[in-house]
Sequence to fold (437 residues):
Amino acid sequence: MNLTRFYQKSAVGMALALFATPVLADNADSGNTAWMLSATALVLFMTIPGLSLFYAGLVRAKNVLSVLMQCFAITGLMSLLWFFAGYSIAFGSSGVEAGPWLGDMGNVFLANVSIDSVRNGIPETLFVMFQMTFAVITPALIVGGFAERMKFSAMLLFSAAWMLLVYAPVCHWVWGGGWLGSMGLQDFAGGTVVHVTAGVAALVAAVMMGPRRGFGQTAMPPHNLTMTVTGAGMLWVGWFGFNAGSALAADNSATMAMLVTHLSAAAGSLAWMAMEWVRHGKPSVLGIVTGMVAGLGTITPASGSVGPAAAVIIGLTAGVVCYFATITLKNRLNIDDSLDVFPVHGVGGALGTILAGIFCAPALGLFSGNGFSDGVSSIAGQLYVQTFGVVVTFVFALVASWILLKLVDGLIGLRVDDDEETEGLDLILHDERGYDL
Fold:
């Protein structure tokens, strides 16, 4: 009798087959793959429709379609640019030793990515797609800094150049085997790569373009807070894919990242609400959803290395610090970062990256998650690495964004003229209206 066939047909054989971990080609785990398919969809969901609705509700009615159009166009354009060269700049070719500054460019047009190739334990096609969703949402965040006044053509040109020349290189430095990652920088899901870079770019754009007409003199309330709250809810849910998905596996690291992400968002929302309640006598809907985003952005770099208690502290700190950063930027510095990208994402991302260096210490027990990075053996050492990473990313994003904006301004101009801004970008740039005015 054929023993192999007997084994396969026996009850024991069927039981073992039932509980065995199925694998895909070249040892890609199917359970991890299933989770990462879901996480990838969640991160894309953050941009369209989540961020799109969040931003669109915050602008005036005459500009709502322009913001939705910008987020939608960025999604398409960044996806194709990631296929063309972005992925190769950020991650290079699998199996090729990474350089400190850029990928090896061996995957231009995804030349070496096949249906059977595996990267980080999942199919490389899925890894490409997951990282693509990050490359989509990061330039989309910047839209909030220049909302209601930038030309659509200028937005497309700047966003394309910025993703390839700012986002993709920083992504390589931190996640693609580059020099900041080699130093031991703890940035699990994008405190520096996503939030600091986008926040700084938004700040530079807001300063260079100047405020919207009437800023500080004319009230510019959000036209539809219901839309903003709907988008905020989508961001909260989608952020589980953003942070827990960055584990690249359905494992304990992903579950802890999901837990701390939720706790920080909850703490951030309530902290911002409390600040408004104390200072102005009433809590606002806009405040609680903005605090939620601050809590999410701040926990992002630390979500793979801290525990639940630290997450609550990080969220509470985010709600307070980002609240005061917003007040300072608008009221004291008179900078019209239209939708508060820098004080929420830039400040939050920097704060979370630095706090990760404190709370990831194994000696802190309840606060610690996975412990220190390789090669870093003290809180002071890790804190230095985290702060250095924030400063370098800040300076690079500031200088590069300023140069790119100056170039775009020289080529086609950044801003619509005063009459066009008064009329509204929906009609002027897209010949449509989202609302009857």
